[in-house]
Design goal:
The protein is of the alpha/beta class and 295 residues long. The chain has helices at 11-19, 67-86, 123-142, 161-171, 190-198, 217-227, 237-247, 257-263, 272-277, and strands at 2-6, 24-29, 36-37, 52-55, 94-100, 109-112, 145-151, 153-155, 176-178, 187-189, 205-208, 233-235, 267-269. The protein is globular. The N and C termini lie far apart (41 Å).
């Protein structure tokens, strides 16, 4: 099977590339390692046809500090997707789109499923919502099997985003657990996501993917602290709540009540649909979480 993968040099893309060894895999993007080197934000045409396309490329894990930086999410995640769809001479049989649970726009909730309204209002969430809609419309018109995979925190070797930030803080002794750390957050292993995409029996649909365990903050920071031989100190919830109120009136203070409530609340997603339709049976995500020591 001939497969095209965007974002092959990224964190998740690397895992996907490793499990596609039995197929003819081509990667596309700006990386020097890409089979096809180009910028998805500019219009292009592909010379070959593909059986499967896995659209993993995208901008994430950054907080925009200007209007220009906010527009980058739309340019890369939405316009880049349109350019990819317009590039095919012949539509693939299967299209896999890597999305995010950020599309729901929720800071708290338990076992949120795929029928939940898409209310994400950050530049990142909006770009993913728009991309999902244009991909769904195109695949329906072209009679292409479509899988949209909405992912939470992704575990693996040297993960980006919040897990990377937690690792750096713990390693430097700058991390403090808030209260008991009992809030739960959904996670998934990058390796399990890759294996699912490589499996032969994919069924069209929109799916949340999690490990079904939804580790607590304490589970996560304890796991990371053991990797580095560090201990985790805790601060009382009441103290942090009071400090957070400073951020409500001082714009550049690193913590405010909204962020405090987000950190201190559970946010989990249901993967029941994937288990029923895709035979999804993942390993505990934290088992795959590791870091190469940074110098």
């Amino acid at each position: 099977m001939r497969i095209l993968l965007t974002g092959g040099s990224g964190f998740l893309g690397n895992y996907i590339s490793k499990v596609m060894t039995n197929h003819s895999l081509e990667t596309i993007g700006r990386s020097k390692k890409s089979t096809i080197k180009l910028d998805l934000t500019e219009a292009f045409k592909l010379e070959r046809n593909y059986d499967m396309v896995i659209h993993c490329a995208g901008l994430a894990h950054t907080i925009p500090k200007s209007i220009e930086e906010s527009e980058l999410f739309k340019k890369i995640n939405f316009i880049g997707t349109i350019n990819l769809l317009d590039s095919f001479q012949k539509a693939p049989k299967v299209f896999v789109f890597i999305s995010s649970v950020a599309v729901y726009g929720l800071d708290r909730g338990e076992l949120i499923d795929e029928n939940t309204n898409l209310c994400g209002n950050t530049p990142y969430a909006k770009s993913k919502i728009e991309a999902e809609r244009i991909v769904s419309k195109w695949c329906k018109e072209e009679n292409v099997e479509l899988l949209i995979l909405r992912l939470p925190l992704i575990c693996g070797l040297n993960p980006p985003g919040n897990l990377h930030s937690m690792m750096k803080a713990i390693k430097r002794g700058l991390y403090f657990r808030i209260g008991t750390g009992s809030a739960r957050k959904s996670m998934v292993s990058a390796e399990d996501v890759a294996k699912l995409i490589a499996s032969p029996n994919l069924t069209s649909g929109i799916y949340n993917l999690t490990d079904g365990i939804h580790p607590t903050i304490k589970d996560t920071d304890s796991h990371i602290s053991k990797l580095f031989g560090k201990s985790v100190r805790s601060l009382p919830t009441s103290l942090i709540s009071t400090i957070a109120k400073v951020g409500d009136v001082v714009p550049f203070f690193p913590l405010n009540s909204l962020r405090f409530n987000k950190l201190n609340s559970s946010l989990t997603f249901s993967d029941k649909r994937a288990r029923e339709h895709l035979n999804w049976n993942p390993e505990p995500a934290l088992n795959s979480l590791s870091f190469v020591d940074e110098k």
